[in-house]
Amino acid sequence: MSAIENALTIDVEDYFQVAALAEAVRREDWHSMEYRVEANTQRILSLLDRHKARATFFTLGWVAEKSPELVREIQKAGHEVASHGYSHQLIYNQTPEVFREETRRSKQILEDIIGEPVTGYRAASYSITNQSRWALDILAEEGFTWDSSIFPVHHDRYGMPGAPRWPHRLKTDKGHELAEFPLSTLKFPGYTLPIAGGGYFRLFPYWFSRWGLGSINRQGQPFVFYLHPWEVDPGQPRLDVKWFSRFRHYNNLDVCEARLSKLLGDFSFTTMSDVLRNQGLLQADSVQPASFRAAGGLA
Question: Residue 98 belongs to what domain range?
């Protein structure tokens, strides 16, 4: 097991909410879909418990509203609860007004459930790009102190090529500051390869993911790994989508849970906030902002 503590993150959303399947499922039909996120998240919680690993669960507001007990279960197991927005829409397709309303709404839902401030955020499909940098100012203004939405790669749906690859303090366009933990990448001559988890973890052979993530630790840096509950669920319904979307979503679902178990044995993991504090990028009391304390906590 590596000596460096890395950030383990779970994006809590259901299979039918994924951008790759949006062509087959309208948002207004979500309530009629088979709901599988509770059982899949509990499978991950059991696996983490067996490996004594802690994680940050970026939880969709829509899921939290439907499954508040699941959010409390995550918190009770010693994990960190963070925001994944409300409706899993791509930020650059939203107006700043809609984004602010959804961000505020999801934050409030989570805080009402766990009775603690929620200070971390991850955008749906990493959709904070150069086109939607304005979202970072809204996050800071709404009380978030850290973010993990920027993927410093070229991609058809997300990416901010040339952005810093390591955790850092980020200054927004309006002069606010956030701690940013970019999604992990490997740097090759002329190319930056995503290695942070999810579909890449299912696509690459395990030895390559282990080598790539280990190389980040060998450089003295922590990495961030992400996965979704639906990725340990090979029995989920198959939706009728284009071949590339089908490949992205369904490839190697049957091996993902076993690979995750190996990863938990090969590396040391904790929450995102713990790693950022270890890096000196968050203050020790940043989990409870002054504005939250001054208001006397949650109403």
Answer: 5-294
Question: Could you report the per-residue pLDDT of 94-130, keeping only the tens digit for each?
Answer: 999 999 999 999 999 999 999 999 999 999 999 898 8
Q: What is the pLDDT of residues 119-172, one digit of tens each?
A: 999 999 998 988 999 999 999 999 999 999 999 877 667 667 888 999 999 999
The pTM score is: 0.93
E strand or H helix at 35: none
- Asked whether residue 122 is domain-assigned, the answer is yes
Whose CA is closest to 186, among 212, 209, 208? 212
Residue 242 is given by DSSP the state -
CATH of the domain at 218: 3.20.20.370
Q: What is the C-alpha separation between 151 and 158, in angstroms, rounded? A: 7
Cα gap 61→64, rounded to integer Å: 5
- Please report whether residue 299 resides in a domain: no
**Count of the separate structural domains present in the chain:** 1
* Location of structure tokens 């829409």: 89
Q: What angle do CA 70, 260, 196 make, to 5 degrees?
A: 95
Residue showing tokens 């044995």: 265
> How far is it, in rounded angstroms, from Cα 97 to Cα 267?
41
The DSSP output letter for 116 is: S
